[in-house]
Amino acid sequence: MATIRKRGSSWHVQVRRTGQPSITRSFRLKGNADAWARQMEALADREMLPINAALLRRKTVSNLLIRYRDEVVSRKKSRAQEASIIAQFLKDPLASISLGKATPSVFAQFRDKRLKVVKPATVVRQISLLQHAFNVAKNEWEWPILKNPVAEIRKPKICNIFLTSFSSTWMASLWFLSSAKDGV
Fold this sequence. Notes:
Layout: E1 2-7, E2 10-17, E3 20-27, H1 30-45, H2 53-58, H3 61-71, H4 79-91, H5 104-115, H6 120-139, H7 168-183
Antiparallel strand pairs: 1-2, 2-3
Helix pairs in contact: 3-4
């Protein structure tokens, strides 16, 4: 429900919903205040209120990963491996980026940098961990993240081709067995 009050020479509007941050704004005309209040209430009904940018500026990727490690990873079977990946992330300059500035291009640069050092499967595992951390923050912790920036980047293609060389005697015996089978 929107609250509209006269404060001095302006009209002050406050829209509050349970589980969402309150939004306030001041207007010179009461008609503008009423229109804005209706618009914000409609957005609140559809859970599309503007994000709290101040919270996203205060939080960093490091804050996200530390909480994810402490609350989510600690209950997983693979906690040792994932804690190791998170420890490596925390040493990277990526960890100091605020969530407000965490865009897909930032994570794409990280992916490209890591591909020069490790295999694609390792990068996919690391990116998947980041993606899940953002999903948990958005869905379970109700951080005001509209889109998961990690989900929007391409994951590297994994080519795990097992190649082996066959000896000429092994190939000859294989050919002999197949020709013997055809002759029977």
